[in-house]
Design a protein that fits this description.
The chain is an alpha/beta fold. The protein folds into 2 domains: 187 residues, Isopropylmalate Dehydrogenase; 155 residues, Isopropylmalate Dehydrogenase, CATH 3.40.718.10. 39% of the residues lie in helices and 18% in strands. It has 12 helices and 12 strands. The strands form 2 sheets. The protein has a 10-stranded mixed β-sheet, sandwiched between helices. A hairpin with a 6-residue loop joins strand 6 and strand 7. The two termini are 20 Å apart. The model has no long low-confidence stretch (mean pLDDT 95). Bound molecules: nicotinamide-adenine-dinucleotide (NAD).
Amino acid sequence: MKIALLAGDGIGPEILREAVRVLDVLRSEGLGVETEEALVGGAAYDASGDPLPKATLDLAKSSDAVLFGAVGGPQYDTLPRDKRPEKAILGLRHECDFFANLRPANVFPELADASTLKAEVVSGLDIMIVRELTGDIYFGKPRGISGPKGDRVGFNTMHYTEPQIRRILHTGFKTARARGKRLCSVDKMNVLETSQLWRDIAEEIAPEYSDVALSHMLVDNCAMQLVRNPRQFDVIVTGNLFGDILSDEASMLTGSIGMLPSASLDARGKGLYEPIHGSAPDIAGRGLANPLAMILSMAMMFRYTFGRIDIAARIEKAVRAALAAGLRTADIAVKGIKPCATAEMGTAVAKAL
Ligand code: NAD
């Protein structure tokens, strides 16, 4: 198992260090894991003038999985777009063809009060959103702004090819098969042709997964159902634009951005694993960051890239044990309990493991 470690900027190095601490426990048991570090994002720009240097890209390509911290910071906001740290993530996704974004939204019972929704609505929530990453209105052509000032037109093209739709739907079905065996395909087929095609293909593929119950939902209804009764869902599969919005909405149901992992997979299961949050420059270097999203991203790596569901489950159990023992970083702290530091949380998870 070869893993590229790309820590990035801000809290990236702090949280990745804790994930490696957990990984070291597994190594000490004899697990054959090889890791190599490389610069990415602002750190890489500072060192070489490029947020995604060739050496970093080569390392990512030659590894089975990438553990990615976070990139970005206010000092880079005025750089030209192609030099900005965020360009590194887009570049990695594009170059490695990471087309499927998996984002779980789980509410650990210990943290049900962190949500802005009532605890009884979200407690025990465990859903997965599978979002397509390479197509849709973000990439379709023509696009642009044209016409004279005062009478300009802005336009984008929603565009999906059949192979793009097929492969993400297969990922959706397979993900549902490995979980609760229910897949909800979200589209806007009442107005959009791309969605009609999407729905037709979903129906066509469904018989290949007779053990998975397929349902369809319009995206506007889905946005509503996610706050009304989120536990009705198991796996949601959807396009790039709808997935962008719905996955952020779902993640906020949990109320704790520092807890949420994600995976971006290619067709063979190779993946980039990262927390959904950014580099949190406001708390960087102060030992305040919650490392659990990073650690849970590593659990996803064992589940989806290495097929080691046993190890993934052990890591997730260790996270729950640390929470059950009362440890809370500042972002998930409750009144009256002294928040713990990043390293304390990482150590507690490693110890529980
Ligand atoms: P952010 O996610 O970094 O931070 C939002 C808020 O959540 C901040 O108050 C932060 O302190 C808090 N937070 C985030 N992660 C936390 C953690 N693990 N523990 C405790 N608190 C945490 O979003 P932002 O402030 O909008 O963006 C900061 C930088 O990150 C920007 O440069 C942005 O472009 C970049 N960014 C990078 C990624 C990525 O690397 N994938 C994703 C989003 C944003």
